[in-house]
Amino acid sequence: MKSDHDWRTALNNPRVVAAMTLGFASGLPFNLPDSTLQAWAATVGIDLNTIGWLTMVTMPYTFKFLWAPAMDRFAPPFLGRRRGWILLLQLATAGAIATLAMNPLDQHIYAAATLALLIAFLSASQDVVIDAYRTDTLRIEERGMGSAMTQVGYRSGALLSGAIALMLSEWIGWRSTYLLMAVVIGATAVATLAAPEPEKTVIPPRTLAEAVVGPLRSFFIRDGAWLLLGLVVLYKIGDAFALKLLTTFLISGIGFTAGEVGLYSKTTLVVSTLAGTLVGGAALTKMPLYRALMVFGILQAVTNLAYAVLAGVGKDVLMLVLAVGFDNFIGGMGAVAFVAFIMALCEQRFSAAQYALLSSLAAVPRTFLGPLAAFVAASIGWAGLFVVTFFAAFPGLLLLWLMRARIAALDPRGSNCSRSN
User: Fold this and answer.
1) Considering the domain boundaries, does residue 218 fall inside one?
2) Mean pLDDT, to the nearest integer, of 375-395?
3) Residue 420, domain member (yes or no)
4) Is the pLDDT of residue 365 over 90?
5) Which of 148, 192, 289, 357 is most buried (most C-beta within 10 Å)?
6) pLDDT tens, residue by residue, 301-354
7) What is the pLDDT of residues 217-235, one digit of tens each?
8) Could you write out the three-class secondary structure of the chain?
9) Are 157 and 24 in contact (CB under 8 A)?
């Protein structure tokens, strides 16, 4: 096989292509109960504090590890242990989004929040199985490029449900926009049907109890397990803090319209993230994992200050594009390294539960920082909020430095989630 950073080879590899297409299916619903719903709420006059609490509907992304063991233990009677679940969840998610589309947000905010919570639950569950599928399927030499292509697919899905959805909302309205998103999500079942099965057959846990206890035992027998968990939580906390109310900041704080946010911010976000992802994937084939995490982590903290500058400048399209572009280019690089880091901590037999646990912990800041971000912004202003997020990144970087020897041992080219760690 050619080098795993040969793009032509990667795009002819069915496992890497499946990582990309299922990444699209994973990214597509993510914005709909979160930032896109924020934009809908802001445009119909929902107040800032309510929007801050509305961000809490993404909690299933934090708690998905609670039901992930059942997805290791049980399988639908078709398409195998991973693809069967993916197909069912894609169809259910499409139905929930279509139902939300029919709900007048300004008249029935609690019903909308309940539906958004359901969408987040179904989407988080789909992520559990897609992450496990990718972990089970990619070979050792494919993990760097597979992680990059996953992010390419994910961000492309996010572009559709983020930037494009916001622009569509001004042309066809929010209801039609969400209905269209439901149709596209249902159509992602085609990618699931086309994806190959993992090459290695693994005996699943024999009981649900084993599916619950086994992943924890497997993870915590390693040295420094608790510190590794802390690093998973803290590594991207500064980014999560800065981005939690970014859409609200741009619309209510700066004065951009939803269509302008979609055209300038969301489009720049996805394009720059895709570029950063591709550069990060190539860099990860040459850089040690620890060095990549440290360099990208420092740069992620610095990029938050660009939003503080934007807050001071005000409504300026060029500054908006520069801030969003810089932030998400670096964020894309960091995401590739972080995904490779999580994959290196997994064991294939329990990959759904272990990956779900680790990614759920990573989502803790993203889930719970909404009300705090709203409070800080209201207290010291938007510029002050983004300065605070810069300093919030320091604890994770310090812990990464303290764990440098253990991280160095998790070279993504030298281990595989199909093996016990």
Assistant:
1) yes
2) 84
3) no
4) no
5) 148
6) 888 888 888 888 887 788 888 888 888 898 888 888 888 888 777 776 677 778
7) 777 777 777 888 888 888 8
8) CCCCCCHHHHHCCHHHHHHHHHHHHHHCCCCCCCHHHHHHHHHCCCCHHHHHHHHHHHCHHHHHHHCHHHHHHCCCCCCHHHHHHHHHHHHHHHHHHHHHHCCCCCCCHHHHHHHHHHHHHHHHHHHHHHHHHHHHHCCHHHHHHHHHHHHHHHHHHHHHHHHHHHHHHHHHHHHHHHHHHHHHHHHCHHHHHHCCCCCCCCCCCCCHHHHHHHHHHHHHCCCCHHHHHHHHHHCCHHHHHHHCCHHHHHHHHHCCCHHHHHHHHHHHHHHHHHHHHHHHHHHHCCCCHHHHHHHHHHHHHHHHHHHHHHHHHCCCHHHHHHHHHHHHHHHHHHHHHHHHHHHHCCCHHHHHHHHHHHHHHHHHHHHHHHHHHHHHHHHHHHHHHHHHHHHHCHHHHHHHHHCHHHHHCCCCCCCCCCCCC
9) yes
Q: Are 194 and 27 in contact (CB under 8 A)?
A: no
CA distance 258 to 165: 10
Query: Is 416 part of a structural domain of the chain?
Result: no
As for how many domains the chain has, the answer is 1
pLDDT value for 107:
73
CATH classification of the domain holding 346: 1.20.1250.20
Range of the domain at 241: 7-408
Tokens 């084939």 belong to 285
* Residues in CB range of 164: below 8 A, 6 or more apart: 262, 266
Is 118's pLDDT higher than 50? yes
Q: How far is CA 283 from the centre of its chain?
A: 20
Q: How far apart are CA 230 and CA 357, in angstroms?
A: 12
Domain presence at residue 415: no
